Amino acid sequence: MPGPPTKLPEGKKIAIAERYTCGESMKTLAREFEVCVASIAKYCRKEKRKKEPFPLQHRNTPSTLFKKFAQSVRMILWRENKVRKLLLEQWEARKLELKEGGLTDKQAIVMASKDFHCLHPLFLQYPVNEFDPNPDSHPHIHMHGEEIKLDGIECDEHELTHAENFQWAMNAAGIYFRMKEPPKKCPNNSAYFLYRQAIDDGNTFMAKYQQMMLDKAKNPNPGDESIKRGARQSIEEISSMLDTLGEET
Question: In order of start, what are the domains of the chain with their CATH numbers?
Fold first, then answer.
């Protein structure tokens, strides 16, 4: 028997409609938010968004891509913190501070986003380099068009759900902490980013995982329990390593 349909808060429904307006496909949005395509279509109809908002040749203009970048920034910050809008308010305050310092709106969006670790993957996804007033800042951020070195780890470019990326990253990090063996392959760049975050910034990684589990508990789907069981040992290993590092400092 299939589980009950996933219920999304109004903020996410509006964000889905906005991203669809910018050219994101319904199939991609359905996979990311773990709902059916019919639900995505329903959200877009409610917000009075057209089925084909832009001609295909105009979907990836610099202006449209930057708009998608800014919308993705706000969406990620909105859902990252269990205290709703707290991170988003911090980002907005930082953006305002930068604009008052003389930056344009787009430059301020880029620079403010650099200060939030959870937004760094967006710089690889979207070509916002031309709006970066200080390209030398935050050199650890991978930018669009940059060749990524995966520490010798082969990338399969295999698309997974957000939960599956977390599961792979936790399993790989758990093995690394226990046996000091890095993975030979990773399914995709997002999974690799989560794996590196689990190793380099475990506290942030665990906070993101806990928030994802809270969201899953509110909207359970078939298969969630197996994901939790498969990741439990890796969670314990990462937590143990964090405790050890804390004792050493």
Answer: 1-58 (1.10.10), 60-146 (no CATH), 154-248 (no CATH)
